């Protein structure tokens, strides 16, 4: 009898310790306490193309979008200035998540400090949360600071937590999917239904989808099974699907994985991509729309972050 009591007590202690570890995960492995910059606030939130003050190219001429992959707070003001000089005609910036290394206030301050003093400051931003913007532990949450820093329309799937939305530009419908809450089947199916509707009602615009976890991973062993199973057929109908997370560059049309400043990871493809590279990159998406003749064209070019060399290009045409 005493043996069974000892076994039960040991099991309870082990379970209690495991629970405590899970609860304290964020405290142990999150951001250590650091001094904040005096006087810093989030009063300089990123502008959004959803703001009424932003009217992108009312004449439906060329639209140019600077596309950034994972960054993890590794780009400085000088890096952003370099990108601004290379893409001086940019109308807005799109980023695929993990812009910050952690979702705590310190990292928002760090990003805003570098960005707001750069030549890209003032451009509207379209972005989606990555897994690094979410807290760790049993209850993964997105800080309210994210919504304050990145204003966006609230037209995502009903009843699904996270930040999914779409924005209509003259010739593009930008659809962003927050892949972090999709481990629950009910959230996954609701998001898939919403995605199909958003693509179907694009009214002739290009459909550019942005998500952090890719449908087709850039490395073997990093496939998100739920994202792959749920979205690969629906998003195969999109004009372009932008993702990050894997810290590599990969294209298998229309799926693209970008990495701008994340620590490069080895590529071990479980399928054959059309193009792949391990160097940090950025993208430039351009779209032309001529309503008078009912023609449009979209081009996505990928450049090396180091020297601006053209590495890849993808062309899509709508008759």
Describe the overall structure.
The chain has 319 residues and is α/β, with parallel strands linked by helices. A seven-stranded mixed β-sheet has the order 4-5-6-7-9-8-10, with helices on one face. A six-stranded mixed β-sheet has the order 3-2-1-11-12-13, with no helix packed on it. The protein has seven helices and 13 strands. It is 24% helix and 23% strand. The N and C termini lie far apart (80 Å). The protein has helices at residues 2-23, 25-29, 77-86, 105-115, 144-149, 185-200, 225-231; strands at 63-68, 92-95, 125-127, 165-168, 172-177, 206-211, 240-243, 249-252, 255-257, 275-277, 281-290, 295-304, 310-318.
Mean pLDDT rating: 82
What is the tally of helical segments?
A: 7
Shape: globular
- How much helix, percentage-wise, in residues? 10-25%
> How is the largest sheet built, in terms of strand order?
4-5-6-7-9-8-10
- Number of E strands: 13
Q: Which strand-content bin applies to the residues?
A: 15-25%
Short description:
This protein is α/β, with parallel strands linked by helices and 319 residues long.
Task: Please specify the SSE layout and strand pairing.
Elements: H1 2-23, H2 25-29, E1 63-68, H3 77-86, E2 92-95, H4 105-115, E3 125-127, H5 144-149, E4 165-168, E5 172-177, H6 185-200, E6 206-211, H7 225-231, E7 240-243, E8 249-252, E9 255-257, E10 275-277, E11 281-290, E12 295-304, E13 310-318
Parallel strand pairs: 1-2, 2-3, 5-6, 6-7, 7-9
Antiparallel strand pairs: 1-11, 4-5, 8-9, 8-10, 11-12, 12-13
